[in-house]
Amino acid sequence: MSLSNLIKNWSSLRVKRPYEGQYKDKDYKWAMVIDLDACTGCNACTTACYAENNLPVVGKEAFSKGQAMHWIRIERYWGEGDALPKFPERGAQFLPMLCQQCESAPCEVVCPVGATHHTPDGLNSQVYNRCIGSRYCSANCPYKVRYFNWWQYPERAWPNPLEQQLNPDVTVRSKGVMEKCTFCVQRLVEAKNRARTEGRKVEDGEVTTACAQACPTSAITFGNLADSKSQVAKMWERQQIDLAKDKQEKSDENMRGYRIFEDLRTYPSIVYMERIRDLQA
Amino acid sequence: MSSNKIDRRDFLRVLGISGAAATLAGCGNTSIESGAELVESYVQPEDFVVPGVGVYYASTCTQCGSGCGIMGRVREGRILKLEGNPKSAISGGKICGLGQAGVQMHYNPDRLTKPMLREGDGLKVVSWDKAMGVLNARLGSKSTLSGQQIAFLTGEISGHQKVLLANFLESFGSTNHVVYDALSPVVGHGANKAVYGVEQPVLQIDKARLILSFGNDFLGTGPSPVRMAAQYARFRKAPRGTLIQIEPRMTLTGANADRWYAIRPGTEGVLALGLAHSLLQHPEFAHSIPQELAAALKPYDKETVAEITGINADAIPHMASLLWEKSPSLVISGPSAEGHVHGFSNATAIHLLNLILDNRGKTLQGQANHPFPQLSPAFGSYTALAQLNQAMSAGKCEALLIMGCNPAFTAPTFVPFANNMGKVPFKVAFTTQLDETSRQCDLVLPILSPLEDFGTHVAGYQPAGVELMIQQPLMEKLYPETRGIGDILIDLLKQRKPDAYKAFPDYYAYLKTAVVKAKPVFKVKESDDDFWEDALRNGVLRLDLPPAPIDARVAAIKVSAPQATEMGMQYPFYFVPSVKADLRDGRHANLPWLQESPDPMTSVAWDSWVEIHPTTATQMQIREGDILEVQSATGSVRAKAYLFPGIQPDTVSMPVGQGHTGYGRYADGIGANPFKILDPNFDEQTGELAMYSTRVIIKKTGENAKMIKDEGPTTLQQGRKLVVTMAADQAELAKEITRVTQ
Q: What's the pTM?
């Protein structure tokens, strides 16, 4: 975004986002639903992400320092409050955590160089060759889903011939750059290009993320929220989640959808569905 | 000798399918776009390779024995990523983390690229001509070995590889195909066979309203985790089923239970009989079993059972009433219930519940009887290895061929397999990478990775009908001096039985002929070539067959008076090894993605650890990261303590699979190997190693180290509403929109 463009379109760029109907007439707004009652915590999604997005294996030492580069990780909790139960009688609480592609992303506003910004299809994108590694975005992310390249991983993470597995559609990031989940933007771009060439829009189910594709229990649903007929849009609607609201007014309390840290007004693009437990058992 | 007769162009020609046929969007009208001018690439790509376009080919995953259909994404002749093949009912288009990591086995930087021959203490690289010369001299046409003198040791193996291997042994008049699996399913299979008349009934998880699982980790390490996870997803949709898991140490499946009970290891059978006793109080079930059996259950009142198992007495009638209410149910036993001296009886006691509840034919069915049983897998067992070990020790084994297992790493200390290898004059390993066992061999032959080779697989667990899975190369071989195991066997067979095999120039020809021969079974009207091409394109040959009935053999269930296990003074803790869904018995510890994939229960990566209950740890003043010595009567290992609430307080647990010493850069020097402290206890019925019956003492070493784990400073949500839980009676699943359908 050039400075002249910024000055010229100042008033439209100053609009508070998101607003009702923001994506109504748009072609795409990518969004997700994750059913925590279906998620078993098996890690198929995380490995699929490594394969698709050229995530480096950082090794034992870097991992122990918290430098793992897993764009999607499975968090595991033992209790909702402050007390550890003697036994986890209701099982573990698994949470697949990835970039929530916030509509009002705390990471975007603090980037000194505009390396992280919002795309017209609602992604929170990271421009690697603008990034100077200030790491403000990571500090400001309440979900802690931004990962910094502390090392020159291309030199060590893929000893020959492992580098032959690298996905040519995805950049291999170098030292000093922040990275994060992109909703598999390379797949989205390919699908959008194909659709545009054929003079149509991307159809529901035509493209999905690597994590959703692998998930053995189909806990992850990915799609286009701007298309009211898409599975993901129908699920958002039935779960009574409004993208542009920070507090959902649900007429049906038994619908399981919720967004994490909604009260921080980040307006995430991922709806989680509550885990269910049969408390009679 | 190493000429690759299967030309890539040849098989690509028959496979031509294009998955994502993406066309780049135009950048405006140019003379090129309008067709007035043509662009010729400087580099002429191979047939069916369109630069920049990923093409998908079907094959079969060989990372475990489930036999999932996979689709490999190939670009510019390189395999990049594996996905599930929707045409296979086993994978249903899905894939697990272990399956994904198949590409790292293929591209592993520690792959063996050339044949190696023993020279003194070391292995030296030799040519294939030399290697095959040695092999033919020992096992070729002039070999006089027979019977027990030759042994072929493998892991679980199915399909035409298994057939060729048996044919090869047969040429020596031998049937000595020894199948070894450190995580053998044999006790469970034996108990199933005794009660149901079949080794592995099909579990209709999605049809059950209540699943009661005694340590069966069907979501993580079961016989078909991807298939069962999909069924589990349907089980959890309206009307939502309830899962109760009973085990000494929480498995991935236990972590997903509605109710999880920590049980004293080895007492699962007692609890099952207590539940049976309680169920018989309901008038509906009172006459479901013979009177004398019912009478034998008398001593299993809830107080006695509670005292033995450590499970609250009131929980027993409660569970029984749930079983009574939620029909059909499904009761399953798993390794932690079966890996005991009385493991077999534990399992049969658990199966008794299914008979009382009449789940037969509803949630438990027999696998379809299919027309190619000879392709079904041979399951591995401990006893097979122990017998071979004995023969080796007595000097009866003259030639040992090894593929797909690593007994030097997984065999317990009291089976000194590695030492006894020294008594075998000729040992050959067929492997993609050197491991602890192949390093001791005299000849090591580098074989093609599963992504470079042809093959067929028939999974031992066939969830619906039967699937003959086709494995085909997803790319040209990485290293010119590697060969397929099938080609090596065909070469040897041509020496042994020239007449029978002269018609097959190579393994590909053999396999194609063999598969095409099965065509009448599939009742298709197409030419042989079309049939073969379709098989390759689909990756699976499916036969829809009805499930077979299973028996109910109540007589197989023996009930004796309940006996409490003694709490040994010298070794006060039960030792429960745990199996990670990705590393399994350690054969995948060489894959960096899996090493870096945190354990779902503890979030630990790149390490071994000792799980200990927080209350026990507090009593013993053990903190996280304290290095503990876990000592059994057999041996001891060291690892860091991890405080884990999902474990019975008198139990400690360690994951198997780590502690390698000769398996490449990603595996070596990581963690410790608990296989080496297992006590020599055996299931009294099958003679299998009772893996979960070892007793240990915990010693603090005074050292402490940082835990290598992914979780943050707390394991609690602290009111942050990260994972919100809804009570099942509140949820309205029927109103929800879902992708998973019944």
A: 0.94
